[in-house]
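Researcher: Please translate sequence to C-alpha cells.
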Amino acid sequence: MAEAFVRHKWADVMEPQSAGTHPAAIVQPETIACMKEKGIAADGQFPKPLRALNWKNVDLLVNMSGSPVFGLIPKYKGGSLMWNVKDPIGQSPKVYREVRDQIEALLDRLAQTLQKQPAPPKQGSEKTP
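Model: Translation complete:
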C-alpha cells in the first residue's frame, strides 16, 4: 500500500522501495481492491524480502512492522522511522481500509516534512567551483 501511495501521490518527493521481513507470496487481492477504492493501482508491485533492496541507495527506512530489522540489514547507514501499522492480511475489508487510511495519513505527513527540507545532492554529482 505504501509504495502504491507514494508512486501515485508523492513521486516528486520520494522514490519508494517496499520490502518486508516476511513478505507474502503475492500482493493480496484485498490490498488491490482496497487501493482501487482510492483510484490507485498497484500494478507491477510484488512482495520482496529486505535483502532484495540495494541499501546503499536508501536514505530513509520506514519500518511499519514494529519488528527489529537492523540485524537483517547491517550495512544500512541511513535514517529510520518506526511506524506501528497493523498487518491486515487475513482481516476484514474494514481493517484493510483502516490500515490503508493510516498509511496514507502517515505518508502525507512524511512527504510534507520532506518537502520542507532542502534536497540532498544526488549521488555521483559533483559541485564545480
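Researcher: Any highlights?
Model: Confidence is low (pLDDT under 50) at residues 123-129.
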